[in-house]
Amino acid sequence: MAASILRLFFHDCFVNVRTLGCDASILLDDTATLTGEKNAGPNRNSARGFQVIDTIKTRVDAACNATVSCADILALAARDGVVLLGGQTWTVPLGRRDARTASQSAANSQIPGPSSSLATLVNMFSNKGLSARDMTVLSGAHTIGQARCTTFRQRIYNDTNINAAFATTRRRNCPSTGGDGNLAPIDSTPARFDNSYYRDLVARRGLFHSDQELFNGGSQDAAVTGYSNNGASFLRDFAAAMVRLGNLSPLTGRNGEVRRNCRRIN
């Protein structure tokens, strides 16, 4: 579940509702009075791992009741999943509080999509106080996990900056119509946190249009080439960028709450 938990953390941190950042708003279920983020376009039928966070929360509260927030648990779980698959560890600053609200509209508008251009990606990360280099290294999270056909269909049928053999292979399990939920690995080593993602981009084997935008004659070509040649520098820079992502103005002090159940406000 490492890739799914990492994605949950990113989608949590990137949604700005009155506060900015990692506040476990993505974990809230819809209720009669609250429309959560789980059914926003970027999350519907793809965000998963909620039951893993539930299990961790139950065990943590059994040892230390009503003290550790769901937001901190998600931040820690994202880090630990990366480490278990071969990534470098980092120290997760703690003390986040959980949001009492969520925003489906913000989730729809603020999370970059798989068809994004390089300019859009740079701008969306800049809006969060993250640099273009941060964007390129955090995109390396795509070195693990699987993606649904619907997210890369346009890439393999319409893009021209794609390795022909790679496109042919991906089309076998992703028809031009139907099969939206069919899965494909995002890079060539989807269960290992390494720099294969960047090597694939250099070989024009990026699965998403937005991924290949990082290596397509633009401003991030040099960074992609560097990470493709030096896996250690990618792991080091990714760890540092994850700290910056996790520090996006979280709720602290008396703001928010420590939820008893990660799926609903107290």
TrEMBL record:
Gene3D superfamilies: 1.10.520.10, Peroxidase, domain 2 (1.10.420.10). One of its GO terms (biological process) is hydrogen peroxide catabolic process. GO terms for molecular function: heme binding; lactoperoxidase activity; metal ion binding. Ca(2+) 1 binds at D12, V15, G21, D23, S25, E37. Its cofactor is Ca(2+); heme b. It holds the Pfam family peroxidase. The keyword Cell membrane does not apply. Belongs to the peroxidase family. Ascorbate peroxidase subfamily. This is peroxidase. It comes from Linum tenue. The lineage of its organism: Eukaryota, Viridiplantae, Streptophyta, Embryophyta, Tracheophyta.
